[in-house]
Amino acid sequence: MSAALTRAPGANEPLPAPTLISLDAMGGDHGPPVVVGGIRDYIRRHGGEGVRFLLHGDEAAIRAEMTRLNVSADVCDVRHTDKKIASDEKPAQAMRRGKGSSLWNAIEAVKAGEAGAVVSAGNTGALMAISKLILRMAAPGLERPAIVASWPTLRGVTAVLDVGANIESDAEQLIEFAIMGEAFHRAVHGVDRPTVGILNVGSEDIKGHEEVREASRILREGGLGLNYHGFVEGDDIAKGTVDVVVTDGFTGNIALKTAEGVARFISTLLKEALTSTLQAKLGAVIAMPALKAMAQKIDPSAINGGPLLGLNGIVVKSHGGADAKGFGNAIRIAVDLARSDYMQTVGANLGRLGTVLESLPPVSASPREETVS
Amino acid sequence: MSAALTRAPGANEPLPAPTLISLDAMGGDHGPPVVVGGIRDYIRRHGGEGVRFLLHGDEAAIRAEMTRLNVSADVCDVRHTDKKIASDEKPAQAMRRGKGSSLWNAIEAVKAGEAGAVVSAGNTGALMAISKLILRMAAPGLERPAIVASWPTLRGVTAVLDVGANIESDAEQLIEFAIMGEAFHRAVHGVDRPTVGILNVGSEDIKGHEEVREASRILREGGLGLNYHGFVEGDDIAKGTVDVVVTDGFTGNIALKTAEGVARFISTLLKEALTSTLQAKLGAVIAMPALKAMAQKIDPSAINGGPLLGLNGIVVKSHGGADAKGFGNAIRIAVDLARSDYMQTVGANLGRLGTVLESLPPVSASPREETVS
């Protein structure tokens, strides 16, 4: 899907420098085996041409995995550090004590301009806090990085953000999420003009609270040039009604976890049903190839990798429990973002947002209806 | 489950008057066939002893259905009206023009003390607005009725509220939802001390925005006597971690619709998988009895019927597209609520809430952490 973004150099262009991806090799539940395994998986699936890796962590453990998994030293640099951040370390503590850790050093490589992106499966709170500290936010309105969830839908994948840190979001922040989510979706999923919707309790303009109605009005009238669809409801996410669903981090986080809970609930019922009787077991065995093909469509590894958007640099969070295939997918997202014009597009659009906000007429006293039908 | 609440009269008590349930016979997509069918279904499943029905709407159409479905005139009174509220009528318009309609008259019967509860499959906005106009809210802090969703879980059914009208809810409203949801769950599901959780983005006390943290503190310290569990996350809903999940109407509505979308997404994938090849079809046919039994566990008809809580009277909303079995379940909920001490418990607890709020020490300046792990 992202082939168009890999941009083979034209005849007159010089060969581009390789894309360097900085990796926190010690993060997550598994550390080096999954990180090095992720490199191998990424190269196997995507070729890995023009990509190099910079691994931060326990050099001996990393090199042992490289040998075991037959990952060439030609594509990997290793920078040793003994220090790592624990999975349960609080963000404030991680910021105070994290300097020199694998996570810290991995982000520093992006700040220094050495790496094009960083991937870590470490503690989300620590990753977010240290990324913000080292890289800083890309716009004054942004308080915390937004986390994107890639949501499997009937039509492909929809980006939902924020699913994390921004518990309360005003209209301006919601529009910033729209700008960043749109550029992300184009860079990673190769969609030319991704459609954007704001999550609400109804599709009419008068539904919802002030923040979503104001954000919707600005996206509709403000000339930001996004392909704005309007409001969408919860069931539109899995339908794939739009490419990018924008919401505050409280609602987004609850929607995501609720969905995970429902998926697990149905899969538990299904497993129980298909093992409940001898006859059901027989049917399940016969239908197994089709059921396995279905399970692949909703394989969490295939959608692993949530970028933290809004920073001056590309940071991709891999799930702490992800396997090598999952980590490989997070690497793919980092590479696609690093090679695209994501940072420039977002920078330009965030810059225009200030002008748009000033030029808009004040909110009209529109009627408000809070009941849902 | 609710057998304990049907309370057979003791030897010294007089036989109680029958419970009269007022029905809007013209509401929903189907009108009389489903409403009269719902009565038949309710009687068939639950006996219907001591329950009578008061049907409002087109008398000829209602009586024709009673004849067709063999529902005895002994248990039904019919009050004719030509007028009905359209499914797309706006709440404000319905309030102005709705007097004398089947929906209006059905609610009036509760207000007059004639009926113990009302069930309507009509337009939610109109039902909510007219219920509030006629019955009034039960406490000054309540602005709009809260809608309860009965959510199938791995451990049974969890009540989630508000999933509807209260777009922004402060701490006091969230506690009112807790009080009402707890009493509802006890009355309808026969659980003696239902556990209550507040929906949040993490389980620690410092997570989330001020409203949820304040509500949680009051439920924990305020001596309201609820069986308060603490914060729950989105995936706890389908796990059945608690009996009652409390949230604002914006988050609750989005969580509910997101869950419906995911359930539909998975069921679509499953159907596609099980019809994708001849072999898969064969397996599906063999496993069909087990798959059907599973489908029954998540049958929407079995959980249809969402009460509008917080009114001076019991109003149950049936889904507009519900079938007779679904409408029958909404009737069951109305009967269980009308026969329980739901109204008294809620009244007493809401009364105590004012005292609790006054007696609590002010909020301490607790640290706040918005990142999620």
From TrEMBL, chains A, B:
The UniProt catalytic activity note for this protein reads: a fatty acyl-[ACP] + phosphate = an acyl phosphate + holo-[ACP]
The Enzyme Commission number assigned here is 2.3.1.274
Keyword DNA repair assigned to the entry: answer is no
Can you say where in the cell this protein is located?
Cytoplasm
Pathway per its UniProt entry is: Lipid metabolism; phospholipid metabolism
What GO cellular-component annotations does this UniProt entry give? cytoplasm
The Swiss-Prot or TrEMBL record annotates one GO molecular function as: phosphate:acyl-[acyl carrier protein] acyltransferase activity
**Primary residence:** cytoplasm
Coiled-coil regions listed: none
Domain of life, source organism = Bacteria
Q: Which UniProt keywords apply?
A: Cytoplasm, Lipid biosynthesis, Lipid metabolism, Phospholipid biosynthesis, Phospholipid metabolism, Transferase
Q: Is Protease found in the keyword set? A: no
Which SUPFAM superfamilies does the UniProt entry name for this protein? Isocitrate/Isopropylmalate dehydrogenase-like
Please cite one Gene Ontology biological process associated with this protein: fatty acid biosynthetic process
**Quaternary organization:** Homodimer. Probably interacts with PlsY.
Q: Which family does it belong to?
A: Belongs to the PlsX family.
- Function noted in UniProt: Catalyzes the reversible formation of acyl-phosphate (acyl-PO(4)) from acyl-[acyl-carrier-protein] (acyl-ACP). This enzyme utilizes acyl-ACP as fatty acyl donor, but not acyl-CoA.
Q: What is the name of the protein in this document?
A: Phosphate acyltransferase
**Species assigned in the record:** Brevundimonas subvibrioides (strain ATCC 15264 / DSM 4735 / LMG 14903 / NBRC 16000 / CB 81)
Instruction: State the organism's lineage.
Output: Bacteria, Pseudomonadati, Pseudomonadota, Alphaproteobacteria, Caulobacterales
